[in-house]
Amino acid sequence: MSNETKRDVFDELLKMYRNSMALTHEEPVILDNDGYDVFGKIEKSYAAALPDDLPTIPLAVSEEIKGSHDSLSLRDELESVDSTSDDFSVVDYIENSESVFAEAWCRGLWIVKETGEVTGYDKQ
């Protein structure tokens, strides 16, 4: 397994392209119709883009995270969810998908299964 990140691959691709343009004596900067560096814009968009591999969780579990994150640690949530939650589907999901739940909790960003919406505990 490589230690290379997706960002490393993207940066290497841009570098290779710019180097190939320089070898052909072309201008290594391509401007759009408004005079902005196309690759600079792409780099900024890539840096701001959401990760490809966000966990997907049910809406009820999303609401559980949003409601508990500020007052409980992940450990406390995992230990107490069965005694504090009124929704058995939440308890069942967390018990059977603990690693996905923990990833959503720790990342603070996930996809809601029913809506496809990207949300997190800081997005109300």
User: How many domains is the backbone divided into?
Assistant: 2
Q: What is the number of E strands?
A: 3
pLDDT < 50 runs, ≥5 residues:
none
End-to-end Cα distance: 37 Å
User: What is the count of DSSP helices, taking H or I runs of 4+ residues?
Assistant: 6
- Kindly provide the radius of gyration, computed on alpha-carbon positions and rounded to a whole number of angstroms: 21 Å
Give the H and E element order: HHEHHHHEE
The biggest beta sheet is recorded as:
3 strands, mixed
What general form does the structure show?
A: elongated
Mean pLDDT: 82
Strand numbers in spatial order across the main sheet: 1-2-3
Summarize the structure.
The protein has helices at about 5-25, 40-50, 60-70, 75-85, 90-95, 100-105, and strands at about 55, 110, 120. It has about 120 residues and is mainly alpha-helical.
Please tell me about this protein's structure:
The protein is mostly helical and 124 residues long. It folds into two domains: 6-48, no CATH class; 56-119. It is built from six helices and three strands, in the order ααβααααββ. The protein has helices spanning 6-23, 38-48, 59-68, 74-84, 88-96, 98-107; strands spanning 56-57, 110-112, 118-119. A three-stranded mixed β-sheet has the order 1-2-3.
